[in-house]
């Protein structure tokens, strides 16, 4: 068969299904002679059927090989190109993160914080969480995000370090298309001194950043890993917070995370016994907002955590490795200062932890049930998306694109006034019970990107709030 064709979420994969339960998602149920007999018996049928489809439809993909969802189509495509070269989901996440430091400098950068959740559905071992937000930087050559990505490459990567970074070097040198979100962030933060006055559709060329990325790409593995040996790597691994919501397992980081707070909030949520029919009712939104606001007040979340920017990368690969990487800075453009090496510095010694968390959801009853990875920036967003995915049984696109409320630092409720679809007047009247008048959350809005699987069918979606498009092949 010909080489798999790269696809975007706005150009869907060709329709068509074949039964895979005997050789794919459920293959761990068989062993020994029974498995061999079934495998040989079905192999001929599968190959014949696939060939017929290939002849009839052209370049047909029986099973999608992998997908990457991020806040930039260019960066999503960088991720899938890495998967096509034989890289795994971690390689794709690393390459995409470097690309986002070029394409979305208002959200993330080489000095950004980061935390990643890694899970393999074949082994079904507990997910691994690596948090390099507060890793000690041992060398000026490797700022925070680069240090974290180097650690991931050392412990989980397959492809060469240089291979993962080179696409970002090219992008920074030739220029990245300026998004509406970047322009909004520059205006809101009065950050014209960093990049000048930009307009959506322009190309932003970053020669110094390209040179810096090229230097990082050319660091040999021995030298790269020698920098890592100077930090306590055991401090990077975080324990898992596992909770149950309806018939699903929810995995988030535990230590130094809002994961335990999210678990408690979902337990309260579950006791209200909402049904699928309730999701569309105004009083449902009211109760969810009430739970979120109650938690912000009860736990003094804002005293312990800060809500900075978020850039979320979701990846699934052909080996059923699932990754959610979230990076971000203390605020848009971090410290607001650019180093002589071309990247924006983040604010250090903040004294509080970040609210952003990667999330994995798996069906607790069926091995081939829904599996979903995404990342959020706060409890309120997490509750809304999880309710939509699980109670509403909606797909990733519907759940991510649904209107969202936010909880302000003083307990007020905010809405995204310009995002479509938006809350109707009846919902707003209910929300006014919690707060006199919901405030308007300014653009650009926080995004959350998702990749999900049901059986062996893979889909993905990049939040329109972030302006990205997912890529798969």
Automatic annotation (TrEMBL):
<dbReference type="InterPro" id="IPR000101">
    <property type="entry name" value="GGT_peptidase"/>
</dbReference>
<dbReference type="GO" id="GO:0036374">
    <property type="term" value="F:glutathione hydrolase activity"/>
</dbReference>
<keyword id="KW-0472">Membrane</keyword>
<keyword id="KW-1133">Transmembrane helix</keyword>
<dbReference type="Pfam" id="PF01019">
    <property type="entry name" value="G_glu_transpept"/>
</dbReference>
<dbReference type="InterPro" id="IPR043137">
    <property type="entry name" value="GGT_ssub_C"/>
</dbReference>
<feature type="transmembrane region" description="Helical">
    <location>
        <begin position="38"/>
        <end position="57"/>
    </location>
</feature>
<protein>
    <submittedName>
        <fullName>Uncharacterized protein</fullName>
    </submittedName>
</protein>
<dbReference type="GO" id="GO:0005886">
    <property type="term" value="C:plasma membrane"/>
</dbReference>
<dbReference type="GO" id="GO:0006751">
    <property type="term" value="P:glutathione catabolic process"/>
</dbReference>
<keyword id="KW-0812">Transmembrane</keyword>
<dbReference type="InterPro" id="IPR029055">
    <property type="entry name" value="Ntn_hydrolases_N"/>
</dbReference>
């Amino acid at each position: 068969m010909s080489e798999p064709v790269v696809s975007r979420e706005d150009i869907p994969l060709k329709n068509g299904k074949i039964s895979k339960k005997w050789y794919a998602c459920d293959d761990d149920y068989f062993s020994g002679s029974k498995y061999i007999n079934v495998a040989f018996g079905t192999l001929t049928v599968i190959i014949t059927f696939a060939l017929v489809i290939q002849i009839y439809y052209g370049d047909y993909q029986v099973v999608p090989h992998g997908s990457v969802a991020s806040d930039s189509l260019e960066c999503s495509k960088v991720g899938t190109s890495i998967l096509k070269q034989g890289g795994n989901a971690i390689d794709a996440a690393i390459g995409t993160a470097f690309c986002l430091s070029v394409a979305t400098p208002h959200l993330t950068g080489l000095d950004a914080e980061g935390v990643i959740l890694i899970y393999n559905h074949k082994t079904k071992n507990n997910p691994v969480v690596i948090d390099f937000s507060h890793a000690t930087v041992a060398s000026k050559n490797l700022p925070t995000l680069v240090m974290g990505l180097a650690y991931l490459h050392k412990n989980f990567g397959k492809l060469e370090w240089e291979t993962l970074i080179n696409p970002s070097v090219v992008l920074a040198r030739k220029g990245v298309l300026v998004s509406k979100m970047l322009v909004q962030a520059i205006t809101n933060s009065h950050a014209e001194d960093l990049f000048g006055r930009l307009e959506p559709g322009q190309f932003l060329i970053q020669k110094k950043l390209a040179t810096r990325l090229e230097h990082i790409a050319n660091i040999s593995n021995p030298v790269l890993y020698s920098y890592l040996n100077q930090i306590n790597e055991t401090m990077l691994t975080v324990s898992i917070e596992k909770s149950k919501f309806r018939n699903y397992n929810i995995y988030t980081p535990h230590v130094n995370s809002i994961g335990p707070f999210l678990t408690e909030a979902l337990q309260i949520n579950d006791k209200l016994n909402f049904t699928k029919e309730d999701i569309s009712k105004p009083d449902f939104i009211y109760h969810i907002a009430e739970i979120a606001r109650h938690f912000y007040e009860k736990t003094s979340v804002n005293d312990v955590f800060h809500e900075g920017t978020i850039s979320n990368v979701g990846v699934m690969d052909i080996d059923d490795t699932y990754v959610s990487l979230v990076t971000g800075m203390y605020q848009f453009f971090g410290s607001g200062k650019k180093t002589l090496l071309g990247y924006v510095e983040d604010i250090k010694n903040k004294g509080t932890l970040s609210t952003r968390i990667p999330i994995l959801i798996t069906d607790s009853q069926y091995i081939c049930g829904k599996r979903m990875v995404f990342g959020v920036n706060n409890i309120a967003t997490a509750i809304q998306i999880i309710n939509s995915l699980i109670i509403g049984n909606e797909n990733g696109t519907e759940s991510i694109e649904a209107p969202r409320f936010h909880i302000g630092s003083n307990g007020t409720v905010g809405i995204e006034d310009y995002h479509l679809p938006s809350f109707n007047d009846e919902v707003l009247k209910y929300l006014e019970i919690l707060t006199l008048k919901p405030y308007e959350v300014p653009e650009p809005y926080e995004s959350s990107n998702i990749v999900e699987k049901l059986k062996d069918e893979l889909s993905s979606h990049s939040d329109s709030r972030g302006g990205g498009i997912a890529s798969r092949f």
